[in-house]
């Protein structure tokens, strides 16, 4: 994503590095890579988050019940 911002900034200041078709192809490639990364990492991040939440609850000795 940062690459697309840099290309756009350069195009505004100096001159376009890429044609519109090339820019669309780069944007599509970045979008596909982002979607693939999110798909692959989704389960790992969910498991890590659940494990972290369980560890924090156990460390505090919190049983999840109200103390009032």
UniProtKB/TrEMBL annotation:
- Membrane-spanning segments: 20-41
The alphabetical list of record keywords is:
Membrane, Transmembrane, Transmembrane helix
Matching InterPro entries: DUF7981
Source domain of life is Archaea
A Pfam entry, by short name: DUF7981
**Domain called DUF7981: residue spans:** 1-47
Spell out the protein name for this chain.
DUF7981 domain-containing protein
The organism is Natrarchaeobius chitinivorans
């Amino acid at each position: 994503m940062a690459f697309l911002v840099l290309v756009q900034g350069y195009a505004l200041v100096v001159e376009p590095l890429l044609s519109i078709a090339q820019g669309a192809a780069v944007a599509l490639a970045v979008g596909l890579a982002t979607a693939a990364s999110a798909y692959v990492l989704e389960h790992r991040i969910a498991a890590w988050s659940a494990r972290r939440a369980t560890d924090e609850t156990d460390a505090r000795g919190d049983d999840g019940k109200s103390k009032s």
